[in-house]
Design brief:
It is a single chain. By secondary structure, the chain is α+β, with helices and mostly antiparallel strands. 29% of the residues lie in helices and 25% in strands. It folds into four domains: 2-91, Rossmann fold (3-Layer(aba) Sandwich); 125-180, 2-Layer Sandwich (Dna Ligase, domain 1), CATH 3.30.1490; 189-318, ATP-grasp fold, B domain (D-amino Acid Aminotransferase, Chain A, domain 1); 328-422, Phosphoribosylglycinamide synthetase, C-terminal domain (Glycinamide Ribonucleotide Synthetase, Chain A, domain 4, Alpha-Beta Complex). The protein contains 14 helices and 22 strands. The chain is globular and about 60 Å long. The relative contact order is 0.14. Bound molecules: adenosine monophosphate and glycine. Residues 118, 141, 153, 155, 185, 187-188, 192, 214, 224, 271, 282-283 line the site of adenosine monophosphate (AMP).
Length: 431
Amino acid sequence: MKVLVVGSGGREHALAWKLSSSPNVSKLYCAPGNPGTAECSTNVNISDTNIHDLVTFAKEEKIDLVVIGPENPLFGGLADRLGEGGIRVFGPTQQAAMLESDKAYCKELMRQYSVPTAESRIFTNYADAKAYIASRDEPLVIKASGPAMGKGVIVCEDPADALRAAEKIMVDRIFGESGDKLVVEEKLTGQEVSVLALVDGRNIYVLETAQDHKAIGEGDTGPNTGGMGAYSPVPFVTDSIIQQIERQVLVPIVDAINRSGTRYNGVLYAGLMLTTTGPKVLEFNTRFGDPETQPIMMRLKSDLFEALMATAEGKLDEVTLEWDSRPSVCVVMASGGYPGKYDPGMAISGIEEAQAVEDVMVFHAGTTRNNAGRLVTFGGRVLGVTTLGETLLDAKSRAYTAVEKITFDGAYYRKDISDKAMVGKGSHTGK
Ligand code: AMP
Ligand code: GLY
């Protein structure tokens, strides 16, 4: 079977790495891929948002399955165009992807289907938003409704901050038309957890849990990033919490999408806050999480191709996934200055030495090769150093042993990835 993975981040390297080990995959492409995916697949120089060229390539190469990694191609309708062209695809339609691309729509759907989430109000003009915010005196979360590259959510401790955030989004239009609608939400507290499930239009298969570390600083301080590390499984998410999430969140939202005139196909990612009154949805993503995918793929023992193909074909009921019981930790190494400004082009060394540590895989995210063919930094999040260990502490210590072997100018990483597993223990009351 010929497979094309669309995207170029750490998530796509992890997916391509796992797919490349499948005996069913005879040819694997990545578009556009990165220097990491070049080691386990053939990179194709087409941008992940160039829908026309991606569809043409998939047709010409007679690709059997296209796996869409990032959100932007989904929002642009890549899954729809591939489907129309008779190409099998893993990834939701543009309409189903509105769960992620339009937070106001998503909140309304959750309200209709009684999915537990933060109380919220939606505004289309600033004067109304301002009057409402001024009338509240508790911490609020202000969200641009449209896509904002993960930066459209501002958590505000007091109403003055919330007013400033609303003004930036609706008046200064820092996210452009993505801020035409504003979601104002109560601030929830608790541990955050990511629950990802394969959905084939009908059946739902929940994957192993993971916890992201979104803030740049240790102890979850400082501005949010794309994710500075993740681990799997999350010890305080019990089977009964998973069942509750499946019943109260995943089943009703897939039902809602299916009744909206499309079908949900691909991976559905629920970002949840475990509150004292049960799990509540913070957001849905309509794709694999990054960096959650890295530790999840590290633990997957089954053939990823079979699972994704079965999802695309509506045969998920025939799939059972096997997992490595050992925990996995992924530490992201970022460019100095990220998530603010940073300089690219720093020479990277030590990846081979890091991968010589047992059960270590280094996934590339923001790397490239310069004119001389040297591996250099390119993006904010550069590498995801991912390990397995007998215990979470063992996986963590192995991850940092490997991280310390890798160098580039300005390299930054959090030193506390996976510590939240301990903090979370006992802090959640379940139902
Ligand atoms: P989102 O993109 O909606 O997941 O938001 C990004 C991050 O903002 C989440 O991972 C949370 O850390 C935080 N966040 C979003 N909504 C809320 C909320 N209602 N209460 C507290 N934190 C939130
Ligand atoms: N790890 C968060 C995300 O993928 O959006």
